[in-house]
Amino acid sequence: MAFVDYYKILGIAKTATAKDIKKAYRKVARKYHPDLNPDNKEAEKKFKEINEANQVLSNTEKRKKYDKYGKDWKHGEEFEKAQKQQSHHQSHSSRNQGYSEQDFSDYFSSMFGGQRASSNQDSRRFKGQDFNAELHLNLKDVYETHKQVLTVNNSKIRLTIPAGVENGQVIKIIGKGGKGVNGGPNGDLYIKFFINNHSQFKREGNNLYASVDLDLYTAVLGGELTINAFKSKVKLKILPETLNGTKVKLKGKGFPVYKINNQFGDLIITYHIKIPTKLNDKERELFTELKKIR
Questions:
Q1: Vertex 237, ends 233 and 241: CA angle to 5°?
Q2: In a domain, 1, yes or no
Q3: Which of 28, 112, 163, 291 is most exposed, with the fewest beta carbons within 10 Å of its own?
């Protein structure tokens, strides 16, 4: 297996911070993303390499192993075990059998596919590499459960995205990571969701918040007002003498609860009373009369 320089792929130095890695990954991944390079095999190959580099370097433990063991970083723990075992043999067999540096090199090769491997060592199984991916959606996209096809390392994966997924949430898709070694299980795919909110609603957990303008006359005298909920319209009854900043809770009109059918959070409405402007003479006269009465 040839050595792959993950730092070079992302265009960063070995001293790069986690922030540097994330910034570099987003830059180059955007450039070679399959959606921006349809039917471009070279871009697909490059995008796969970029993802692989990010998955290793953005993970503290994987990065340590990669920096220490190079192309054999996935088997770093096995190497350390082999090293301890070799030291044990050296201390107990120095009189009858010595281990040279070349001997140990051969032993290490046998652990990871060299020609001297025993049948037991050849059958050693390893779990495949875990993959990490980001999925950017709009708030309206996660109001209802839907299916979506995601391209990860040049493989298309059909996902069912449950309603109610939150911004920053990570879900695991078992067995959709890298292929296992020697019949070992495949790695897993971890998807992190980034939910963009371009709506009039603010989301906190399963609750939605919105502000509604209320004209002065309806606030004083009471009445009815039809407003937009997230996916429907709701008619509100406005009580007389409603104050500015009054909040009302509409139960079950909020966001779906993740993986619980037919259960929703609440919609909290805050009234903002609008003061009339550009009054005509008659209106000014009436307000003046009201002032005198009060």
A1: 135
A2: no
A3: 291
Instruction: List the one residue out of 180, 186, 127 whose CA is nearest residue 157.
Output: 186
Whole-structure pTM value: 0.57
Residues 175 and 216 in one domain: no
Maximum alpha-carbon separation in the chain: 115
* SS3 letters across 58-88: CCHHHHHHHHHHHHHHHHHHHHHHHHHHHHH
Q: Which tens digits make up the pLDDT trace of 269-278?
A: 999 999 999 9
Tell me if 129 sits within 8 A of 58, measured CB to CB: no
CB 98 within 8 A of CB 20: no
Letter for the amino acid at 191? Answer: I
Residue 242 DSSP label: P
18 Cβ neighbours under 8 A, 6+ residues apart: 58, 60
Quote the pLDDT of residue 112: 42
Q: What pLDDT, on the 0 to 100 scale, is given for residue 257?
A: 95
- Domain span holding position 214: 202-293
